[in-house]
Design goal:
Strand order of the largest sheet: 2-3-1-4
Low-confidence stretches: none
Structural class: alpha+beta
Order of helices and strands: EHEEHHE
Number of helices: 3
Strand content: 35-45%
Length: 98
């Protein structure tokens, strides 16, 4: 059963470019992690301060390994997160027939 994560970030005024730069650095190593099925970042075409992530992992443990990775801490927790005005985080599991 796939573990799905959605994340919404809103950058503080004047921080959108820095958040985008942190995301650019976060994407390649995250996509290379074992257990990552999909890691897709999005940017609102009408408000460049709003970002959305859609993530799929083979299981919750793979997600936890991502959160604990050096690149998630460096570019996410230490760089992007302090630049945010708002953030929302939701998890799901894929629907299995039967």
């Amino acid at each position: 059963m796939t573990y799905v994560v959605t994340v919404k970030w809103t950058a503080k005024p004047g921080e959108a470019s820095a958040v985008a730069a942190a995301i650019d650095k976060l994407i390649p190593p995250t996509r290379a992690e074992e257990g990552v099925i999909l890691y897709q970042a999005h940017r609102d075409p009408h408000d460049d301060h709003k970002f959305f992530f859609y993530e799929q992992y083979v299981d919750e443990d793979a997600f936890r390994r991502h959160v604990e990775s050096e690149h998630a801490k460096t570019f996410g927790v230490n760089d992007a997160l302090p630049r945010l005005a708002e953030r929302e985080f939701t998890t799901y599991r894929t629907w299995e027939d039967g």
